[in-house]
């Protein structure tokens, strides 16, 4: 309790230094703290009847700067000064060359966390902000450094197409009771909607999914204001049987000549301790072939064996 009091005292001192404008709460009773000034994750609306997350209340913004030079050399020079070349295009605008600050863009990517989110682009040369979403982000496959960013501009009063990530919820009946495995065919779904109806992801409930069953695009839960653009027969997630590692018992079938015992091997012994005679047919295999009366010639350099005494 003493350690907890010291920690809370430190937080209270920091809160006083930050001023009354900051929202910073610490309580000695329950272990619940609210650090809003340090929050980087957007607060999401509560889930409604449609089963999907709505747009976040927090509006994401990104400062961009227009650029004139193009080509690989110009892009390399931008990356050296911690800038990422970008382009903005859309239905009603001509492509516009931009550059983005790397630390700011990295924070934005971390906050979005793969969800479908609209971003306001602030430019110094234009007073109005452009509404867009991330179309593509290119990274270096070795260093994971940002190479290029594609931004798609949209209008708040027009419908647009966007790919939204799939989110699986629930525990599948096939996985829980039938030892099945979930197999996701597509990580994203293409939808068409307006900016106000954009969900951060499409939620798919797999609770009733059994082994051998598949959820298709046409079976997804309807979302108000959202139209699915993919083929209705396109699979989304399936519950399949696991790939069994079959260890088949290999029955060794003796080939011709494999029935004879090896040279110097002890004969088989039965339960009474007496040697067991070889089966019929095995004696023929053990006997030398006809015409093999002559002894085998000694190896090169070896002394011939002494003749047996009469």
Main traits of this protein?
four-stranded mixed beta sheet; RNA Polymerase Alpha Subunit, Chain A, domain 2; six-stranded mixed β-barrel; 310 residues; globular; 15% helix; Ribosomal Protein L25, Chain P; alpha+beta
The gist of it:
By secondary structure, the chain is of the alpha+beta class. Among the domains are: 2-35, no CATH class; 60-158, Ribosomal Protein L25, Chain P (Beta Barrel); 161-240, Ribosomal protein L25, C-terminal domain (RNA Polymerase Alpha Subunit, Chain A, domain 2, Beta Complex), CATH 2.170.120. The protein is built from 5 helices and 15 strands.
Note down, in words, how this protein is organized.
The protein is of the alpha+beta class and 310 residues long. Among the domains are: 2-35, no CATH class; 60-158, Ribosomal Protein L25, Chain P; 161-240, RNA Polymerase Alpha Subunit, Chain A, domain 2, CATH 2.170.120.20. It has five helices and 15 strands. The protein has a six-stranded mixed β-barrel. Strand 4 and strand 5 (96-101) form a beta hairpin. It is globular and about 95 Å long. The model is unreliable at 1-57, 245-251 and 283-287 (pLDDT under 50).
